[in-house]
Write a structure and sequence with these properties.
Blueprint (H helix, E strand, L loop, with lengths): L6 H9 L19 H12 L13 H13 L10 H13 L19 E5 L4 H9 L4 E4 L5 H11 L3 E7 L6 E8 L2 E2 L1 H15 L7 E6 L2 H5 L4 E6 L4 H24 L1
Parallel strand pairs: 1-2, 1-3, 3-7, 4-6
Antiparallel strand pairs: 4-5, 4-7
Helix pairs in contact: 5-9, 7-9
Length: 259
């Protein structure tokens, strides 16, 4: 967050201006991004086709969902959002009863194990890793960007990603889970809320905020992910956060195992 409209910020503003039908959508590299892609994901999810997370990114999962829809609708199976495909989406989604996915993120919030990925340059990352290793396998990421963290987590189908950061501009503690467009991470929200409740039970607890956001590390991971930001807080309070996280992580791991 710089307050400067740099190249990346400008590109995101452009992406937010697309409406479904304004352009051809298809799998390309780099992936197409925009609000029109998110609208396509929502419509397919409502009709029971799994497009992956509703993140506005046209990736392989969305390509597969488009092809499956085209095949079911008797259209040419090209993976491209043609005018005929849009008309079929409008026809089938307009009058038919929709299977609305209120938390499409959960289509991908699955886990193949009990590995936890920790990422960040905050000193508490090491302390948290030590505390969690008593019950879980922990991977302490040395990646320099969120994309690499997400790639590793997705490829290894880990159970949970925890990201920690210190921002001097903040006061208190901010807990962020994935939320974007019309969907959010239900388990991410539950974990963040549980940690906040544990902290609130302490008389010395700082101001704690729980917010859904679309930060890259939250947007690109396919499992429950929590980003924790520390502001100006005493060391003993920061250590209390580690205790609160450890106390509540197990329920997310167990929830993932049941799916």
């Amino acid at each position: 967050m710089t307050g400067v409209v740099d190249q990346t910020t400008w590109e995101r503003l452009i992406e937010a201006g697309w409406k479904l039908g304004d352009r051809l959508l298809f799998l390309s590299f780099p992936f197409q991004r925009g609000d029109d892609v998110a609208q396509l994901q929502v419509r397919l999810a409502q009709l029971g086709f799994n497009p992956g997370r509703i993140d506005g990114i046209f990736g392989p999962l969305l390509d597969r969902a488009v092809r499956e829809f085209q095949e079911n609708a008797g259209l040419e199976v090209s993976g491209t959002l043609t005018r005929a495909t849009i008309h079929a989406l409008e026809r089938l989604g307009g009058g038919a009863e929709r299977r609305l996915v209120t938390d499409a993120r959960n289509l991908e919030e699955q886990s193949g194990g009990e590995v936890i990925v920790l990422w960040g340059d905050d000193p508490l990352v090491s302390e948290l890793a030590l505390a969690l290793r008593t019950d879980f396998e922990v991977h302490q990421s040395t990646a320099t960007n969120a994309h690499d963290v997400a790639t590793f987590a997705n490829e290894h189908r880990v159970a949970l990603v925890l990201s920690l950061a210190t921002l001097d501009s903040l006061t208190g503690i901010h807990l962020h889970y994935w939320a974007g467009y019309r969907t959010h991470s239900r388990r991410g929200e539950q974990l963040a809320s549980a940690i906040a409740a544990t902290l609130a039970a302490s008389a010395s607890a700082p101001r704690v905020e729980v917010t859904g956001m679309a930060l890259p590390v939250l947007r690109e991971t396919q499992m429950t992910t929590l980003h924790v930001e520390f502001g100006k807080t005493p060391d003993q309070v920061r250590h209390g956060v580690v205790t609160a996280i450890v106390a509540n992580v197990a329920r997310v791991i167990h929830s993932n195992r049941k799916k």
